[in-house]
Specification:
single chain, mainly alpha, rod-shaped
């Protein structure tokens, strides 16, 4: 037969189980509320991520357009430089060689004139004044 003590012990264990179930249900409600909150945040972040991906695609396309424009500009400049170089080379070829010889002769004549001393001492003094002497001293222009 069942004794009074056994009934009290059973009642105590049932009370503990009911308290535990109540605590677990309250905790479950809190966790479900957090879960719903987190799911809402995840949905918002997915929308934001989707927008960022679309923006990323647009940014990449704009970079590609800019790079293409720069490449086109660079190729135009390269073509212009090549044309200018070809024109300059053609112009040098068509110049008369006598002109370059005349320029060389006039330069050598000037250097010969600078090296020779004149009979007139005044001219020599003027030429010395025009050509600075390099005596190892530096000019201080400040």
């Amino acid at each position: 037969m069942i004794t009074l003590e056994q009934v009290r012990l059973l009642d105590q264990k049932v009370s503990q189980a009911v308290d535990l179930i109540s605590t677990l249900r309250a905790e479950n409600r809190v966790l479900n509320e957090k879960l719903e909150s987190y799911q809402e945040k995840i949905g918002e972040l997915e929308v934001l991520l989707s927008g960022l991906k679309e923006d990323q695609v647009e940014v990449e396309q704009n970079f590609q357009k800019a790079l293409s424009a720069l490449d086109l500009l660079d190729s135009d400049e390269t073509a212009d430089t090549a044309v200018e170089t070809e024109d300059a080379a053609a112009q040098e070829i068509t110049e008369e060689p006598e002109e370059s010889v005349k320029l060389e002769e006039s330069a050598s004549n000037e250097s010969e004139l600078e090296e020779t001393e004149h009979e007139d001492p005044a001219v020599n003094e003027l030429m010395e004044e025009e050509q600075p002497e390099d005596n190892g001293a530096e000019l201080d222009i400040f």
